[in-house]
Amino acid sequence: MPNIPAIEAAGLRKRFGRTTALDGLDLRVDRGTVAGFLGPNGSGKSTTIRILLGLLRSDGGSATLLGGDPWNDAVELHRRIAYVPGDVNLWPNLTGGQAIDILSRLRGGVDNAKRDELLARFELDPTKKARSYSKGNRQKVALVAGLASNAELLVLDEPTSGLDPLMEEVFTDCIREVKAQGRSVLLSSHIFAEVEKLCDTVTIIREGQTVEAGRLEELRHLHRTTISVLLDRDASVLASVPGVNELVADGPKATFTVGEAELGAVLAAISTYSPRQLVSSPPSLEDLFLRHYGGVPTGPVAAAAQTAGMR
Amino acid sequence: MTRYWLCVRFILRRNWLRLLIWAAVLAVMIPVVYNSQQQAFPTQAARNSYAQVANTPAVAAMTGLPYAAGSLGGILVIKIWMTLALALAFASIFLVTRNGRADEEAGRTELLRASALGRHAYSMANYSVAGGLSVVVGLLISLLCLAEKLPAAGSWVMGASIAGTGLAFLAVAAICGQLSSTSRGANSLGVAVLAVFYFIRAAADLQADGSNVTALSWFSPIGWAQNMRSFGQDTWWPLLPLLALTVLGCALALRIETRRDLGMGLLAERRGPGRASAFLTEPVGLVLRLQRGSLVGWLVGAVVAGLFFGGVAQAMSTVLEPSNAFAKAFVGSAPNILDGVLGIFVLFTAMLSGAFAVQSLAGARAEEAGGRLEPQLAGALSRSTWLWAHVLVAAVGSAVILLLGGYLTGASSSGAATGPQLAGAAFAYWPAVLLMMGVQLFLQGFLPRLSTGITWAVYGASMLVAMFGGLFSLSEQVIRSTPFGAVPRLPAEDFTPLPLVVLTAIAVVLAALGMRRFGTRDVMPE
User: Fold this and answer.
1) Chain A residues inside the 8 Å CB shell of B275
2) What pLDDT, in 10s, does the model give residues B400-424?
3) Is A285 helix (H, G, I), strand (E, B) or coil?
4) What is the pLDDT of residue A305?
5) Full domain range(s) for residue B492
6) A106 vs B270, B290, B381: nearest CB
7) For residue B327, what is the enclosing H or E element?
8) pTM above the 0.80 mark?
């Protein structure tokens, strides 16, 4: 059993009329891990999840969910998974509590103690009609229904959209508990901090294709460390040091990036310029992400990335 | 009241088509109904004989006490006054809620009120536009009555009494919009008040002694408007309390608006159970719960219609002259008029049942379009189980409506037919209703986004041909080849099983193809 991944998709394809939503997407989630699933709006995250849930039929490629076929074995597989959509649509004239019970019992059953505990933690009033819920409260309904289950695999599609920071914290705790119990999670998200905190592996997709996938530490190794220094002289001298990239010099201050292999040589070179301060930061998930999307990050890294574009 | 006129223009801009359609549909009823009644009762002798039998309890309860059934104006009032007055009252309620509480609930009012806008400018503009609709519809009705050469005094009172009803319920809706914090609540409350006043006047009209109403009639604004008696005594003064109610009601609503917070209502939103019952977590249970309100509505409709049809069957068949071409085309080639009339009533019951089935099954597509199907299918629920739950509710519900409506028509027909007889006659239409469901299931499989619209169009066309095909001089063959026309029109015609077998077979094939396709296609939210 542990050898069968929770999710394995290879070369997944899906077209809607003339638009291609998925164009050979690969995704793997190992048992007992929390997998981050990143990509901008419209890159195919929700389409992938819908195919994995048997709601859409793929046009090509292969996908297995807990070792089964997502389309043909949908009903059986769904007893073992829990799904939280990012855009929760509820029956307006039923209460949140009724919706939680309906969705939970469709999966098999409700753990009443857990349900009540989650209602308290998320501070959700289950006697209100869904019509009067805000976006965040509708999200909580789906979260309570999904987290109250003992499903082997949780499929979460931007589960914290609309939640306030306090509730995001409650969510983070819940996922850590799920992970501690050895269960698996696929977490599609926009929030880098959330993914960095929770996820063991990350898959970044773009226009329906996987552009980066692996363990977060490994991905960091593949990318350059950002270094900020304060020297006793004009920092533009660093331009001549081999291995220094994306240099932005401003008087004695400078920010640049260095590959893992050149780090030692670069640090040795810097030490000859009597550095007063040195800050080294590993690439953040945001950097990894923006590298693939050509977006503009904020802060010193932003300036570095912009100069990178000039090289 | 700063920027009142800007608000008026804004509301007109957002509602002009809706206003136009309400006004046109209501006004055009006058010439249409008047001309049909002129054909049904062409001579004074025919009208006099109608006047003898017009005052049945069913007519008094439904459309009001007949007081001048011997004149064309009086007949027009019996046939259309109550419909127009109620329709205008509904229009006022929906319009005031749509532009008032619904906008506030959606947060649009907040956006407007944050700008340099008087506190009451928007509400006043809303009431003015809705009131304008009532006045315009009243005027159109009066003018169209005059155009039909009806007596001038009666024509003006007719328009004024209907407009007065619309205005009175505009005030009711204005207050409801302040009390409830949701548009749904405001509409429900307004319609409930309308229903209560309707039943008060119905009770008053049933207790009437001859053509004199009891005092109870004065406890309902609809009663006030009725007591203006267009084409009868033509009394103007009951218009005063109607207008007073309008002004005082709107003033009260504005006063509440001053005192409450934006987005709040005086009545708290009702809470519900925090847990779902075992019944609700079954697929069929959920469908029944979601359609509870509409199910109750359709069943009450079937009961009221059945009792009404039974109550007027005898009277109608004595009034209709066998030589009347209009009657003949409508009633068909029945050997006797009474069976023909009963046949039409059974077809009406089939119409109710068919509309229920289409509406109920459209609920399945609405769940899919609204994004509520996906989380259900993400649970351990198969697509076929889910769809069958909807099919079951629509199929069984439509059968119950047919049997109930048919049975009550027969049972209340004072001997024209028996309950079981007409229950059977109505049930013969079940295969035609199933065919409508088959069409819908087929479309939900292959053309989900268009399915509801096309099915209603197919239903409407089938109903029109079955009901009025004769009037449009369509050939017997054409009428027989449409779903509701194919069913033998019992009790006027003899029973033949073949059409029912054919209809059922087509229904089953369409449904099977559609459900098969639904099982293999993508789930498509809107």
Assistant:
1) 97-98, 101, 126
2) 999 999 999 999 988 889 999 999 9
3) helix
4) 36
5) 283-520
6) B381
7) helix B325-331
8) no
